[in-house]
Structure formats: C-alpha cells, structure tokens
Amino acid sequence: FDQLDGQIWMNGEFIPWKDAKIHVLTHGLHYASAVFEGERAYGGRVFKLTEHNQRLHDSAEFMGFKVPYSVAELDAATIELLKRQGFSDAYVRPIAWRGSEMMGVSAQANRINVAIAIWQWGSYFDPAEKLKGIKLDLAEYRRPDPMTAPSKAKAAGLYMICTISKHAAEAKGFADAMMLDYRGRVAEATGANVFFVKDGVLHTPDPDCFLDGITRRTVIELAKRRGIEVVERAIMPEELSGFSECFLTGSAAEVTPVSEIGGKWTFTPGKISETLMNDYMKEVYPAAAVAAE
Ligand code: PMP
Predict the structure, then answer these.
(1) A GO molecular function for this record (predicted)?
(2) Above 60 in pLDDT, residue 48?
C-alpha cells in the first residue's frame, strides 16, 4: 500500500505518496501514541468531514496531546487532497502521532505529526447481496473498562484487540467478530457499532465504553425520522435469540446486515435493515450532489 501513486498530506505539505515515511523509532509505533479517523467521500464530498476531524482532535486530547492543525485546516487539507487525488468515491484516513525525537514511555517533547491519505474506494452497493447478511464470530477479547483505557478515543492502541479478534474470526470463516465489553455486555464489532431489531423497535448498546460512531448517530437520526423507536441500553448476549434483525454501522461498513453471531444466534435481515441501509445511502449522497453544484 506504500507504493501507490498520488499524494499524501503530511505536516502541512502535499508530498508524493511513496515519500510519506517515518523513522523506525517513532513513538506512535512503539507505544501506540496515535489517533486516527476513517471517513468516506461520496460523489466527491466527505460525509461529515468536520465531525470526523473534531473527533480526531478529541481523541488526541484523551491521549494527552494536541493536534497542531485546527479542525478547519484539516477539513481544507482533506478537500484539497481529495481534489488532487481525483477520486469521487474514496476512503479518507487522517492520523496524528507522536514522533521520534525522544525514546521511552515519556515523550513530552516529541513532535505531533499529522498525515492524511486518501485512496479510491468505490461505494459498491448491491442491496440484494448486502441483505444476505454477514456472519460474525464471538470474540474472546472484550472492550476494556473506561478506567483501563481511553475507550472514547479512536486510538491506535485500542485496535490491537480488534485485529487479533478479526483475524481469529476470519481464520474460522467469519467476516468479523462481535465483541462483548468488560462487563460481558454486547458492545460492538471490531470496526463498527451494532443494532438489533425486536417487534419493530431498534435496540443498540449504550456507548459507554466504546465509540459512539458517527454512523451510529446518523442511523439513530434516520430511524427517528421514520418514526422507528430507538432504545439505547445494556444488551446481554443471552438476549440475542430474541432479536429478529441485526446490522452493523460504521463509516466503512455503512449499514451492513448480520445473519449470524457466534454460530449460535441467527437473524434474518428484513424491512428495518433494508430501509435504514437505503436511507443511509440517500443521506450520504445528496450532500455530494449539493457540493458538486
Ligand atoms: N467502533 C469501532 C471500533 C470503529 O472502528 C468504528 C469505525 N470508526 C466504529 C465503531 C464506527 O464509527 P463511525 O460510525 O464513526 O465510523
């Protein structure tokens, strides 16, 4: 992935993609002092760009550092980079990390670096295919207690258990893994939030120890617009057999129906999943049409 053409924005400059390198003693690499975002551009416009860049700032604050570019500067850099890359449907990855000036757990003087990369990612969307649903494993690792990790930050370190869990799930033929939280409650997938349907009502876990996703909040809003009741509460795994539908939400996942969790609980993607899947795609695209004018 480091040999693509095009440009990457790094510390205020647009540089060739292949030259966007860091030193092997980078603090962010050794101690995971890095925060990042995952965004999508639809029709040449990044959906909820400012919210993502604000969250990058907030994540950095949880980690005890400040992103040295304002949200407005990051927005402008992203818009310019998207134009330079020439993509209309793309994935956007900003990241901020502590540099390599000092080595050790403490790295107060290390420069905070920031980069933005954008790569092409078509918003391929075949509703019939998506509605078959994906199968999830049940992860062994749990989302940590907020007293154990900055669980509200989109911090690189928190993805360590996500990669382990996703790899373990993939090795068993599952698409992804469902993670419980430190109390044993249903939490989220390795890169997406989760919703369930019961008797026409949406149920989703309280995001008190994991990301309250931007897509999650968007889908709650879309559901309410449709008059669908949304209940945010603690959900125990024992309850899963009582739900008819299940889907994941995330900037990358969009709305992805789930057909099975842990080989134990099954769901049939239905009306509500389909409605919200379509409403979400409508929500991300009209903004793009406006931007293109
Ligand atoms: N949880 C995790 C662990 C994630 O990586 C993501 C993707 N950023 C989400 C939830 C969903 O967040 P969003 O809708 O803001 O992309």
Answers:
(1) branched-chain-amino-acid transaminase activity
(2) yes
pLDDT at position 286 over 70: no
Rounded distance from Cα 217 to ligand 1 centre (Å): 11
Does ligand 1 come within 6 angstroms of the Cβ of 214? Answer: yes
Tell me how far apart the alpha carbons of residues 114 and 131 are, in angstroms, rounded to a whole number. Answer: 38
Does 233 share its domain with 142?
yes
Q: What is the average pLDDT across 180-186?
A: 98
Task: Examine residue 293 and state whether it is found in any structural domain, yes or no.
Answer: no
Measured distance CA(212)–CA(203) in Å, rounded: 14
Instruction: Specify if 154 maps to a domain.
Output: yes
117 CA distance to ligand 1 centroid (A)?
A: 18
Size of the chain, expressed as the number of residues it contains = 293
What is the pTM assigned to this prediction?
Answer: 0.95
Residues with a catalytic annotation lie at: 154
Q: Which residues contact 238 (CB under 8 A, 6 or more apart)?
A: none
Q: Whose CA is nearest to atom 7 of ligand 1?
A: 191
- Taking alpha carbons only, the member of 258, 185, 247, 239 closest to residue 213 is 247
Q: Do the Cβ atoms of 40 and 90 come closer than 8 Å?
A: yes
What are the backbone dihedrals phi and psi of residue 49, each rounded to the nearest 5 degrees, phi first?
-55, -50
pLDDT digits (tens, 9 = 90+) for 230-248: 999 999 999 999 999 999 9
**Domain that includes residue 279, residue range:** 127-285
